């Protein structure tokens, strides 16, 4: 699962390398609008005639990508690092499948670590019942739930959550690295 995701991550990082240099921040409106200059991106990469990339850039998914990843100050992730710092590495690995596979595995490991930041926390497994445990008579029935007490606990929890400050994520925002300009990239 993670290796397939890593392959797609590399593919999209390769497709969109240099996209940040073609973003324009328009401040005419009350809310700034981020616009992607498609013609400059395709022209500088020499891909004006590339139907696939043109269709990708004209799609709604790419418009969402630009609006989500366009702001210059936001939480950065693995994709941002690939686009900004791994340009040369990805180019060098194009003709060397073992290096490419090694990089995919490194990315997959990083994706796994991002989803499981605390590997030392193990889930406790439920032990198998011993032989003949079903024959024991001393097993007590599950106790009845006191509906009144459940309602009290729910009300207490609601009262606490209404008085508590809103939860914030621990992600730190930073200036998104721009990476090399589009003109320095060679089309693939």
Automatic annotation (TrEMBL):
**GO molecular function term, any single one:** guanyl-nucleotide exchange factor activity
Q: Which InterPro entries match?
A: dDENN_dom (IPR005112), DENN_Domain_GEFs (IPR051696), Tripartite_DENN (IPR037516)
| GO cellular-component term (any) | cytoplasmic vesicle
Query: What biological-process terms (Gene Ontology) are attached?
Result: regulation of Rab protein signal transduction
UDENN domain mapped to chain residues: 1-76
Protein name, entry field: MTMRD protein
